[in-house]
Amino acid sequence: MYLRENHLSRHNNPFPEILDDTVYIRILKDPNYWISQDLEDKIIQIIAQSLDISGILYHLGTESLITNAYDLLPLDDSRIDLEEMIQRLPILIGRLTRAVYLNVKPVADHKVLFIFKYLPEYQEKWYDAVFFQGMLNGLAVLFELKTFTIRMTKTRLFGIHVSHKELGEDILFGADSNEYELEWLEDKMFLSRSRLTKDDVSNRHRVMVTSRSDSHLEEISIVDVKDVVRRSRELAIENRDLEAAVEVLKSFKQELEKKQLSMAKDLRLAKNIQKGLIPEIIPDWNGIQFWTGFTPMQEVSGDYYDYFPYNMDKLGVAVCDVSGHGVPAAFITALSKLLFSNYKKPKPSEIFKLINRELLDLVKQQGYTTCVYVLIHDDYKVLYSIAGHPRPILFRAKTNKAEICEGDGTFLGMFPDAGETFLDFQIQLEPGDKMFLYTDGLTEAENDKGDAFGETKLIQIIESCFDKSIQETVENILSIHKEFTMGTDPMDDITLLGLQLSPRLPEFKTIKSKGDAAYQNKQFSEAVTFYEKAHQILPRDLDTQLLYGKALAYSRNFDKAIELLESYNKFKTNHFKSHSVLGYCYYQIELFEKAELEWKKAHSISDANLSNLCNLAQVYAKLNEKKKMKDVIQKMKSIEKSYLHILPLEKKWESLPDE
Does the keyword Chaperone apply (predicted)? Predict the structure, then answer.
């Protein structure tokens, strides 16, 4: 096989480094020629580098059994069955090798264990395991077994070169012996020796007589060993063709895996993009606190939520559920963010009408979204509208009762006349009141008995959290929901958005006003004290957080200021002052690279601010970045040549060593 596959001549020894020409010729001509195990191992190792020989070795094992079985038959022409042939098999192993002997152990009717024991001075090889299993397959071929299993159960090897599944499942490696298990259904085939041949009595082929008992009849036939070997080889060739087909399938599988990896990469990219579209947290606004739970079913989600500031007097909040899942749904969520950001109307129903028309034009009815949109006014009046979405749940702090809000409407992006169904509804929030917006993935999720979570259970949990903050309430709902659906696969994306008008709002306003007064008078240490208390009441109120961070910086508490300002910047407010003060804090603790980064961000927001450019020039002086410092000074001159800090900066620039 090796010679044929590599187009080599039989007359030229391809292994001159391990055997001489005489030995090579004898190996080719004499199948009974014995070679050492060491030489055998060297030859096989070389051949195995260019060929997958496990299948060949398996069929060689099968042929070895078939061609040698004749000598195991009784000399008196009496017949034997498979079980007796199995008991004679150790004789054959002893004739074929001096390195290993075989014990046969019946464990049940038609079930036998073959235990191969190696002499201490010999080391078994992976190809031995394949060859011996092929021999056991030869028994099945010889006795024409229709239903049987052959599997390796244990081996002294610590791993096998070929696929373990070819030899059997659950192989015990590193065992004290090499064992195989053969199990078959009841058979009625017998073999005996014959001196006849099928065709010519003078032809001294090895011929066996087979007899099969069926009821009261006995079928007798003559089998030539050469015919059996020929059929076995034909089967081997068919198996090789099958293996070639399997290799083609493997290549297809590899191509598919490459495409899957590419798709997975694209999905991760889409996930990261969507992560930037959906806010991780929503800041407190005018005394209203928010908390969210968001669980995508796949890499990317069809659920979407966001908030939209309307100057200082209103805040819009939307929760959407796009039809379908995966990338198409995520595409529509990206469109939704764009559309909701563009359309800020005084009534949610008007926003829905405009977005419905835009989605019809863009998506062509190939997808739609449900939505609930809440518009919160600074006097805590709430207008909301529903587009085919689960209705909000309102919890009243005065009564400790929760109820489903009224409202209805159809999907966005599906029907041209949907605008007629969009209506506005109004409620008034009081201190302590909570409102919950969610997608149907929350309430329609089922437990392992097929029961849905449902709105009734959701309301009961909300009412049981009457004394908890909005964060604690949302997290408690999601914890109970997770426990309820334990052991089931998620059926949909899940989004839960809760908001609460803080019951401590009057206290917050009083404390913050005192902090503002101290800050205006540049009493920064006193301002820090008041802002810290206000921050504890509404920890995500952005105005308080920024003033608190600035007061800490001017009080020279740089580490705490950095913590507050970094948290503030996560809300992506693009506030010039937050980056400018954060750069100042990093500069003071001599983290100049980070100071440079923050001041560059501040410059990108306000590129004409001279004090920020002056700061950048100072940090480049610290970093000995002479060219960058010169460029900043030139920018300052282009804005205002007479700026008083330019001359001292130029002198400092001249004193820097050349780069």
Answer: no
